[in-house]
Every structure is written in C-alpha cells, then in structure tokens.
C-alpha cells in the first residue's frame, strides 16, 4: 500500500487541483513565516495571521481528502 507521501507525489504529477492546492499552501506558509518574523504583531497582523492559518488548514484538509479519495479508488481497483 502506498504512503501518503507517495500518493501526494503521484497526485502532484497527475492532478492539477492537487498541485495548485500544494503551491498555494506553500505560498501561504511563506507569508506566515514572513509575518512571524515580527516578534510583536499588531492587532491587524494577528488577524492576518489567523486568516493565513485558516487558509493553510483549508488547503491541507483538501489535499488530505484528495489523498483519501485516491487511496479508496486504488483499493476498489485492487479488490476487483
């Protein structure tokens, strides 16, 4: 059975939606790291930080769902 990382690699190569989700997740991570370089955040920056974190989590959840769907499809194929 394939690991999540192996499935992610396959999806990266074959699924444009997965690839885009991963790219956006990476961009959001870079934005968050840049924001966190400030040791003290203003209230506006705190709001921005929370928005970025929520967006990252949303992208990660969607990628995990695509991985689960891929795994389920492969198991159905193997069972038939």
In whole angstroms, how far apart are the ends?
Answer: 16 Å
Written as H for each helix and E for each strand, in order along the chain, the element string is HHH
DSSP summary, beta strand count: 0
Anisotropy-based shape: elongated
* Unreliable stretches covering 5 or more consecutive residues: none
Output mean pLDDT: 96
Fraction of residues in helix: over 70%
Summarize the main sheet: none
Q: Indicate the proportion of strand residues.
A: under 5%
Q: How many distinct folded domains?
A: 1
What radius of gyration results from the CA coordinates? 16 Å
Contiguous helical run count: 3
From the helix content, strand content and strand pairing, which structural class follows? mainly alpha
Please name the defining characteristics of this protein.
mainly alpha; single chain; 80 residues; 3 helices
Explain the layout of strands and helices.
Blueprint (H helix, E strand, L loop, with lengths): L3 H11 L1 H21 L6 H37 L1
Task: Describe this protein's structure.
This protein has 80 residues and is mainly α. The chain has one domain (4-79). The protein is 86% helix and 0% strand. It contains 3 helices and no strands. It has helices spanning 4-14, 16-36, 43-79. It is elongated. The model has no long low-confidence stretch (mean pLDDT 96).
Could you write a compact summary of the structure shown?
This protein has helices at 4-14, 16-36, 43-79. It is an all-alpha fold and 80 residues long. The chain starts with a helix and ends with a helix.
